[in-house]
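Entry for the shared binder. Reason: the reviewer on the internal report wants the predicted structure included alongside the sequence.
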Amino acid sequence: MQISEIINNFKKTRQQLANDFAETNDADKYLLEHSRAADEAVREILKLKELSSRISVVAIGGFGREQLFPYSDLDLLFLLPDDVLDSELNSVGAVIGELWSLGLTVGYSVRKLDECIEQARLDITAQTAMLESRLIAGDSELFKRYTSELEKSLDFKSFYRAKFIEQEHRHLKYHESSYTLEPNIKESPGGLRDLNILIWVLRAAKFGATFDEVHRSGLITRRECDLLEMVRVNLYRLRIHMHLLTSRHEDRLVFEIQEPLAKKLGLSGVPGRRASEILMQRFYVNAKTIGQLNSIILQAVKERFVTDSGPPLDLIDGFTVRGEVLDIASDNAFEESRTRILQAFMIQERHPEIARKSSRLYRALFGAHMLMDESWSEDPKNLQAFLKIIQGRRGVWHALNEMNHWGVLGRLLPGFKKIVGQMQHDLFHAYTVDQHTLLAIRYLRNFTHSENAHELPMCTELMVSLKDNWRLVLALLYHDIGKGRGGDHSKIGAEIVRDLCRRLNLKSDDAEYIEFMVREHLTMSQVAQKQDISDPEVVEAFARKVGNLDRLVGLYLITVCDIRATSHKIWNAWKAQLLQDLFLSTAKILKGRKMTRGMLVARRRQDALALCKFSAQDTERINAFWDNFDVAYFMKHSVRNIVWHAKTLLPHLESEHSFVAARPLRGLEHAHEILVFTKDRPELFAQIVSALQRTNLSVLEARIHTGKDGRVVDSFIVTDDESDPTFGATLKEFEVKLARLIDSGEKLQPPVQGRLSRQSRQFPITPSVTLRPDASERIYLLSVVATDRLGLLASVATVFVRFKLNLLTARIATLGERVEDIFLIESPRLQDPAFCGELETAILEVLEV
């Protein structure tokens, strides 16, 4: 048989298997028959290339288990005899070359028996793959020696420890959560790899190769066996569909395949819920079940092999502790006292020396859902136990996370149950509502540990000094509880948490504090990112809303944690700086150190001159230059910035040519300030922004200041794309190029039209434009919301040129794929409603491109 015929036969079989699977959804049948089809194709290639029969060709890994997914790797071991010939090795190379033509990624190793055993000893991944070995062709006696030697070399305790540590590190990589909006169904917690860990450990411990065999060995119950089979089949079925749908090895449940995948699985949407949401919620339930069973069984295995550390010691009524393991005194401990369900978490929180729970305790939690009814959640004893967990000095996040993992949190707090596994269809949240909430609490609790102080030292200092900081834990637990109910989730959450505070019998001051945090948890972020916090009136208004320092500290801390827990793409040093500046400015006002605009300008000019140390002549020159600009220039720039501007621009004050300077921003990685000094003209902003975006610089903020003499000092805060470690040198070249471009009078080039990201295409944002006058009715505030793309800001700037608007300042806010930009503009024609309508329409047109 020729190679082309082998390939065609294999492809036809694969297509027929895919067609059959689409009809039957029988995952086990598909995987078995696909593996056997691959076996047959491999054997035909071996014959074609006349591979020596002295070489054992061994399927390993998933292929070895006869579970070959549509686009998974074809993992093979070519097991060589000790006296292998060069000609035999050459034929192995020829076989491997032809295997790639089957359309699958080929993973292979070519080793002698002693090399395999040595590799298994050194590499736990290789050892794991070799545990699942199956002979396809070649020397069967050599293969028997290989399996025998491999079994002898296996030290189970070392293997168990290595796989347990491997799982812990993999979970940490995914923030110990499978509740991401685009989970990896293989690697994330509760995914296929967690099931594989169980299979490998159980097989290595000789409990059985299937879950049914393990049940017969007495390690797991019949219910656990049935559940393991159910979640296994669900995941296998889902992964097969994902591979076939994308025609590639795709293990991420990315947004663009969720809806078509739901349809493949026969799911349809209902009012208020997409089919994809139903699919994802089922996946999360499946993942949680796998996680719970994984905890139970790995602990049960460990208990079979770990030497008893002595007699159990009573720790509290109904519980015992043996070594570092917490256990219940009897199988029906929870039936005897349902408060013990919460005590199980509280004990471990208060006793960090207790590292784990016993398999019996895990099983009791697994089966406790019937005990946690409405009367249990209303019981004052349980509510007080929950409050004690919240108020703990250590282990608070771990306790809450475990309570959510075992379904206790949703049963105790009915409002919380509604956000468990709830999708967030936007472009900046990376997690479901409950996981975002718990991650925010984790960041908050990290501020209580000195080892994390290097990240955000001011937050750590404030958290430690804040009295009753447990109130912030409760506020964060409820800050998004109103999501999915329609209306303002902050106000809804405030009402819900007010009721909880009543049930917990909290003091009125504490209840009001927590309610304020939930109701206003978005306020500080909105003020910092959308308003001009250099304006004392803005800060004063924020201070009046906050009221006192205690609330300011709390609001600052939960705002930082809320943003950080949204997505790694959202939090950056620039946002951190904005929030810190707002916090410090507001704290001064709340401490009675109020400052007017006039006082602020005078103080900054005085302080800047003191730092510049100019000669009398240069002082006169720089004062004349400053007199050109109004109060806004001095309000929007710190003393340090004003000093840099003065020293940098002094040699160029009388020049007729444009001047551009750039510097890295202190403490902000990959962030730079670009200073432009030139004569004003209508298309200037658009030209600069276009040049910045063509250099792959993202604009965070633009400060536009036009002097009385017609010259401008424009300042841009930008970030680079982090791809070039030597970007600083590139920026020096850009200074010269931009200055020449401005002076050249070159016609404004059309802006770059970047494409939307894949996430943006799945969750498009309806562009919106809002235009309203300020109190003077001379300056207008233009707010733009749209999906981010390269060239968007430059496109908006070209509209300003077309409508002959004077841009005063711009605040650019990017939240993941969403932009919320604010521009202060002026023009006599803005008094005309028809002109305003035309302007809004024109901006919408460029946003919708």
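Summary line for the report: The first strand starts at residue 56 and ends at 59.
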